[in-house]
Amino acid sequence: MNQPTSRASVTIWASVWIIITLFLRIESGQAQTVLTISGEVTKPLTLQAADLKAMPHTDVTGKDRDGKEHHYSGIPLSDLLKQAGATLGGELRGENLSKFVVIKAVDGYEVLFALPELDPDFATRIILLADSVDGAPLAQGIGPYRVVVPGEKKPARWIREVKSIEVRFAK
């Protein structure tokens, strides 16, 4: 005689199936990478890899830690912040000038930018959320997303494995 399957055993098998599926996707490089943009924005975003890939890309050149010039492609941080409804352009005045952006990596590393540093109305350089270097995807441990800040003497804010961007008030 067959015994009815208990709800607990179905839940356990479903959990095992999900874990195995996620493990296989990660091992084959197919893990879904999510980027969140939150905080002092009007439209918090959760973007999948396909969303970011479909956005218009810009190219910048910068010297990495190796001292060599590399060509990076990605989305300007200002474009991402604009899409999320961050205060930029003509609205970036008064108390809004005290806003800053914290970018976090998977490993817990964080870097900070004053919001005007990222706004094309204030700054001449393009700070990029890169997804490729020299025509190839970023290497594991660096990508899938990396902030590139052309012209900085030290690439300490070239944060790797970016997972989130948060806009905050300094007050």
TrEMBL record:
Pfam (any one): Oxidored_molyb
Limits of the Oxidoreductase molybdopterin-binding domain: 34-167
Superkingdom, natural source: Bacteria
Listed name of the protein: Molybdopterin-dependent oxidoreductase
Membrane-spanning segments: none
Organism field: Spirosoma flavum
